[in-house]
Amino acid sequence: MNIRTRISSLLGFVLLTMMLSAHAQDATTVDAVKSRLAERLPGIDVTSLEESEIPGLYELITDGQIYYVDETAEYLVDGSLIRLSDRSNLTDARQGLIHAALIEEIGEDNMLIYEPEEPSNRSITVFTDISCGYCRRLHSEIDTLMDAGVRVRYLLFPRAGLGSQGHDDLVSVWCADDPQAAMTNAKAGGKIEPRTCDNPVESHVALAERLGLRGTPLIYTDSGTKIPGYREATVLAGMVNDSTPLAN
């Protein structure tokens, strides 16, 4: 083995050792932060803890929400992390992905879905209520979404709470012989025939609370974008069809 080959081998070994050492140090730091966090917030369920883009600041995911904590676990930040170079809201982007995964756990069998005439794999998921004015407005534009090849998946959220008339109305819609037609009729102000059956409304409400819903409609595109509040159907269709869906 000539001197150049020996030096190259030695450099490779040194670089590998440095990489492994750095990795071990990173893991040790994360474990240390997690340990300190457990001391300051006993019982916290840490879904994920990892380094953020800012040195010394760690991204903490717990119960579907994102927070940031420093290395000492003395300070916790509840807010958005924005990268000024491109004005990207890194927190919203990450949270959309996390929430999308939680939504998929519900399963489409437990959603009220409107399908376009032509089969499509593009969709939006909407937390909706019958009495919500902007929910009604969005529903009145549902044909625009269908024509654009966008499926609409409804999750049911009675704004007046469980046990309210709004809750009963959503259950009646779900339990109707034709739930899609019943929802369209209800949102147009039509009479709702009382019905009861096994239904997912309580699980939808529990998910909404976990996601921090503050009002309806709350919309998620299949690319992981979270949209609080109403958007015109043409805008939504463009957002969906100009994006790439998340991998299942």
List keywords for this structure.
single chain, 248 residues, alpha+beta, Nuclear Transport Factor 2, Chain: A, Glutaredoxin, 2 domains, five-stranded mixed sheet, four-stranded antiparallel sheet, 44% helix, 19% strand, globular, disordered N terminus
Q: Explain this structure to me?
A:
With 248 residues, the protein is an alpha+beta fold. It folds into two domains: 3-79, Nuclear Transport Factor 2, Chain: A; 106-241, Glutaredoxin (3-Layer(aba) Sandwich). The protein contains eight helices and eleven strands. The model is unreliable at 3-25 (pLDDT under 50).
Summed up, what is this model?
This protein is α+β, with helices and mostly antiparallel strands and 248 residues long. It is built from 8 helices and 11 strands.
Which helices and strands, and how do they pair?
Blueprint: H1 3-40, E1 48-51, E2 57-62, E3 65-70, E4 76-77, E5 82-83, E6 88-89, H2 90-106, E7 112-114, E8 122-128, H3 133-140, H4 142-147, E9 150-156, H5 165-175, H6 179-187, H7 201-211, E10 218-221, E11 226-228, H8 233-241
Parallel strand pairs: 8-9
Antiparallel strand pairs: 1-2, 2-3, 3-4, 5-6, 7-9, 8-10, 10-11
Helix pairs in contact: 2-7, 5-6
